[in-house]
């Protein structure tokens, strides 16, 4: 239940974020084929070219921080959210967060790894009440000082072959650019 609420809250927050400070860059020698770099509010990460900017709710404008495989399919998406934190990141805080994530719904398999500057969480959700397919999600929280970015990449079983090959590159690419 806790995981379901977290995933839906993260998705809703991502959809509501405005247009501030996002630029897509292409053509860099360091960017793997089939991907481009996205910058957003002082952070950068890679995005697969197959994911396109999503339209904002009730508008024809695109959201700068939400990318989807298909304009009607939010389950196969990459999104980010930037926020201020109360304190700098510590390994203890990362461990607490990871343990909270693993103590949730038994239908969700959760793995996490605490990193020097944040945490990586990977989930596999198999809940027929939410989706007829298994949903895979990777979330990288990267903290720089008192500012954090959460990059979330989700895809369904039907799109695993198309999207799973990009997950590690996206999660490993998250960085501060300020």
Automatic annotation (TrEMBL):
Leader peptide range in chain numbering: 1-22
Keywords noted in UniProt: Signal
Protein name: DUF1795 domain-containing protein
Organism: Tannerella forsythia (Bacteroides forsythus)
């Amino acid at each position: 239940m806790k995981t379901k609420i977290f995933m839906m809250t993260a998705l809703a927050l991502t959809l509501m974020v405005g247009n501030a400070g996002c630029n897509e860059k292409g053509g860099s020698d360091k960017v793997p084929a089939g991907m481009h770099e996205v910058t957003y509010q002082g952070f950068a990460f890679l995005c697969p070219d197959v994911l396109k900017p999503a339209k904002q709710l009730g508008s024809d404008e695109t959201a700068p921080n939400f990318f989807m495989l298909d304009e009607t399919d939010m389950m196969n998406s990459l999104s980010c959210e930037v926020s201020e934190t109360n304190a700098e990141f510590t390994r203890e805080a990362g461990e607490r967060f990871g343990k909270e994530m693993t103590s949730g719904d038994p239908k969700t398999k959760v793995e996490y790894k605490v990193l020097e500057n944040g945490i990586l969480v990977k989930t596999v959700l198999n809940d027929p009440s939410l989706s007829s397919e298994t949903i895979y999600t990777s979330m990288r929280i990267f903290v720089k000082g008192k500012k954090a970015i959460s990059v979330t990449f989700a895809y369904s079983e039907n799109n695993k072959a198309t999207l799973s090959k990009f997950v590690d590159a996206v999660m490993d690419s998250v960085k501060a650019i300020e």
